[in-house]
Amino acid sequence: MSAQTENILEVRNLKKTFTMKSGHKVEAVKGISFSVRRGEIFGFLGPNGAGKSTTISMLTTQLAANDGEILIDGIDARRDPVAARAKIGVVAQHNNMDRSLTARENLLFHAKYFGMDEAAAEKKADEYLEKFGLAEWQNDYVSSFSGGMAQRLKIARAMMHTPSILFLDEPTTGLDPNYREILWEQMLELNKQGTTIFLTTHYMEEPERFCENIAIVNHGELKALGTSSQLKALIPSKNILTLKLDSLNEDDARAAAALKDVQQAKIQNGTLQLYLNTKQPDFDGIIRWTEDRHKTLQNISLSTSTLDDVFLYLTGSAMNAPEK
Amino acid sequence: MNNPISSAFWAMVHRDLLAQWRDKGEFIFRVVMLPLILIITYGYVLPEIGLVPREFPTHMFAGMIGMSILITGIHGTAIPFTMDFNNMHEIEDRLQAPVPANLVAYAKMLVGIIEAFIGGLLVLPFSAFFMGSRVELALQGDRIVYLVPVLILIAIASATLGLLVGTIVKPMQIAAMFPGFLMPMVFSGAIFFTWKSLTAVPFFQKIILINPLVYANEALRFALTPQIDSMPIACSAGGLIISSLIMGYFGFKRFHYMCVNR
Question: What domain range includes position B96?
Answer without folding.
Answer: 4-260
